[in-house]
Design goal:
- The chain is α/β, with parallel strands linked by helices.
- It has a single domain, classed as Class I glutamine amidotransferase (GATase) domain (Rossmann fold, 3-Layer(aba) Sandwich).
- The protein contains six helices and 14 strands.
- A hairpin with a 1-residue loop joins β12 and β13.
- The protein is globular.
- 43% of the residues are buried.
Length: 197
């Protein structure tokens, strides 16, 4: 069973449908016992970091998530929540990755949010990338970004270079939406499901 943490993200239904297409059973939950006993955990998120973190605090999930030992995948805002801080409201996050998320600055050439298809630039090998080509296109919608760090698996560029995929031990994240990224996104989700628990 895959536990999808109920963080209030607008992409939760599409994540659940994407898992169903891959033959994976999932449950949307904020129950600590269910999350701790799940084989895999997804942390989705669309919206504001302060709101998402407040929801996790209210549900008593911060310590739970920080101490999970099975594979965990953050998606979009859910990936950013794995970092230490967000400039959005100067919000403390879950702190697994030691870096802060900042906002894109709009220019005449670049609107914010960064929305649409962009290319992955691989930084090092990782199980999430099995069968995925360097330069593959995936779908983004975000106004804040995580910087490049040693744990960056794949990068992307939109004015700033930023982390598109991150991975350290059992904690992983995708800034893009794999559930909206066609066959490439489906392969990344399948790779996550195949990581040993």
């Amino acid at each position: 069973m895959i536990a999808i943490i109920d963080s209030g993200g607008a992409n939760i239904a599409s994540v659940k449908f994407a898992l169903e297409r891959l033959g994976a059973d999932s449950v949307l939950t904020d129950d600590i016992d269910i999350i701790r006993s799940a084989k895999k955990v997804l942390l989705p998120g669309v919206g504001a970091a302060p709101v998402a973190m407040q929801r996790l605090h209210n549900a008593g999930l911060v310590d739970c998530i920080q101490n999970l030992e099975q594979p965990v995948l953050g998606i979009c805002l859910g990936m950013q929540l794995l970092f230490s801080c967000s400039a959005e409201g100067n919000t403390p996050l879950l702190g697994h990755f030691d870096a802060s998320c900042n906002a894109f600055k709009p220019t005449k050439q670049r609107s914010v949010p960064h929305m649409g298809w962009n290319r992955l630039d691989f930084c090092h090998e990782h199980p999430l990338l099995n069968g995925v080509d360097n330069g593959a296109h995936v779908y983004f919608v975000h106004s804040y970004f995580a910087p490049l760090i040693p744990e960056t698996v794949a990068a992307c560029q939109y004015g700033n270079n930023f982390t598109a995929i991150v991975g350290d031990k059992n904690f992983m994240g995708c800034q893009f939406h794999p559930e909206r990224s066609g066959p490439v996104g489906a392969r990344i989700l399948q790779n996550f499901l195949e990581i040993p628990s």
